[in-house]
Amino acid sequence: MALTFDDGPDPVFTPRLLDVLKKHRTKATFFMVGKAAERHPDIVREVAVAGHTIGNHSWDHPSFPMITGRERREQIQACEKAIAPYGVKLFRPPYGDQSLRSRLEASWLGYQVIMYSVTAVDWLDHDADWMKSRIMNRIANGSIILFHDSLFQYRESRYANREPMLDALDMLLEELGERYTFVTIPELMRQGRPQMAYWVKTTDINILNERSGPYGGPPRYAKVQ
Ligand SMILES: [Zn+2]
Q: pLDDT at residue 192 above 80?
């Protein structure tokens, strides 16, 4: 299985996550937001030096089907710069939203799109036990599990607290460490057939516009034909 962590790096929680992963001798994949990576290059390096894989999660997290092709390319390229020289050519679309067109464009830029098969729903107010059981009930060989070491956007500020996620992960690795091997995405692809869901999906534009973020004002989304 592969553990993936989106939306970081975060100056508080990413180093703590690295400690949890180190404790369980586990390697993971981090899909970073370019804007956050640019602010915390030291943490980007720390993640890479610890042996984890770093992938691209766009520059500032727009829903890709709702922006133009040119904006999509700029989003991927700006993030690529921010995570260089450590980033690999793996892309995870923000919110998991993508269209056939946006998927193709990512491949034209040399990226492989990596979705996920199990989520902890750690962007809402769930406690560690709830998240751990949710994941335990859904995993299988080849699972790609989605967590967040930061939340680029959240509905309420208390949801940004990553403590419950870190606790859930710690318990999960404690319990599964004997039975499963956790590997990075490139390793998972070398070893077999990863499980991924939601190949093409969009988010309701009204839900996106309700969200607010730590990087300044509410996001603006316009529908693009
Ligand atoms: Zn994200």
A: no
Which token pair is 67?
């922006």
- C-alpha of residue 133 to centroid of ligand 1, in Å: 22
The answer to whether the CB of 53 falls within 8 A of the CB of 86 is: no
pLDDT-derived band at 178, boundaries 50, 70, 90: confident
- Does the active-site annotation cover 40? no
Flag whether 146 is in a domain: yes
Question: CA–CA separation, 215 vs 197, rounded Å?
Answer: 29
Q: What is the CATH number of the domain that holds 106?
A: 3.20.20.370
Given 6, 7, 60, 122, which residue is catalytic? 6
Is 24 among the catalytic positions?
no
The answer to whether residue 15 sits within a structural domain is yes
Q: Does some domain include residue 152? A: yes
Confidence (pTM): 0.87
Give the domain range for residue 114: 2-210
Q: Which of 52, 57, 61, 148 is catalytic?
A: 148
Structurally, the chain folds into a number of domains equal to 1
b/e code 79-113 from CB counts within 10 Å (16+ = b): bbebbeebbbebbbbbbbbbbeebbebbeeeebeb
58 alpha carbon to ligand 1 midpoint, in Å? 9
CA distances from residue 43 to 4, 86, 107 in whole angstroms, order as listed: 16, 11, 28
Q: 182 and 28 in contact (C-beta within 8 Å)?
A: yes
